[in-house]
Recover the amino acids of this structure.
């Protein structure tokens, strides 16, 4: 009996299950294809990325900018400190001058009248200087005849305000005073308000008033 192989039997043979070895080979090929796909693309890109590094020229430029900024801040702060110190020194000088002028104004001695009043004239200016000078001709005979002596026991000064060219000072003075009719000195208290102006490097009084 002769067996005839039909076409369908051949097709079935070709569609027979593959061996484990064949399946493993195909799976490996598939893995190679999948592994080379888009999922690995970003990873490859990260491995190839370059890290940015500043150039020496850029670093020098940034250093120069920071240095200039630091110098500007230091200069501004330094100027502010200098201005504050200058204002404090200016006020202190005005206060000391006002106190001394008040002491010289109250100090009077019949035996040294000219020297005493000259000090006041030298420390004054403007309207006060003219007014004070105009009274000396009438004041001298009175002081001399009465043998008046006025000294200063204590003087306390307070700065009201000041700027570069002007200042206001209040001075309280305790002045023991004697004369021919009152040999025992009596303590007199005066409170003076002085307006000062800067003349050159010196503070001078332009207005002097007695205040209560």
């Amino acid at each position: 009996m002769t067996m005839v192989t039909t076409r369908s039997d051949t097709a079935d043979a070709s569609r027979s299950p593959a061996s484990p070895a064949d399946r493993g080979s195909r799976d490996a090929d598939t893995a190679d294809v999948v592994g080379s796909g888009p999922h690995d693309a970003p990873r490859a890109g990260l491995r190839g990325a370059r890290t940015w590094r500043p150039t020496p020229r850029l670093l020098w430029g940034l250093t120069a900018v920071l240095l200039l900024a630091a110098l500007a801040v230091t200069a501004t702060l330094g100027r502010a400190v200098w201005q504050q110190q200058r204002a404090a020194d200016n006020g202190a000088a005005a206060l000391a001058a006002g106190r001394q002028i008040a002491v010289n104004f109250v100090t009077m001695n019949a035996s040294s009248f000219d020297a005493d009043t000259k000090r006041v004239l030298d420390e004054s200016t403007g309207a006060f200087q003219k007014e004070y000078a105009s009274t000396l001709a009438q004041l001298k005979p009175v002081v001399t005849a009465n043998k008046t002596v006025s000294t200063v026991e204590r003087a306390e000064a307070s700065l009201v305000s000041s700027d570069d060219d002007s200042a206001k000072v209040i001075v309280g003075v305790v002045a023991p005073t004697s004369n021919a009719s009152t040999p025992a000195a009596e303590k007199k208290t005066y409170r003076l308000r002085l307006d000062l102006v800067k003349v050159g490097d010196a503070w001078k009084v332009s207005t002097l008033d007695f205040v209560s």
